[in-house]
User: What shape does this take?
Amino acid sequence: MNKNMEDKWINTDEVAEYLGVKATTIREWIKKNNGIPAHKIGRQWKFKKEELDEWVKSGKSAE
Assistant: This one.
């Protein structure tokens, strides 16, 4: 996979699959403002895998 595809924005369902949780869990994390790196684009939340990886590695996902 080329670098451009790795940098693409992914949606809530894709994040849930990537992290192994349910999409409703991702939405709850956004509402709780627990630091998940989410970006509002229009009416949708979008994410970068690189930012998610850093967030998980930082330990903030366990708070």
About this structure: Residues 37 and 51 are 6 Å apart (CA to CA).
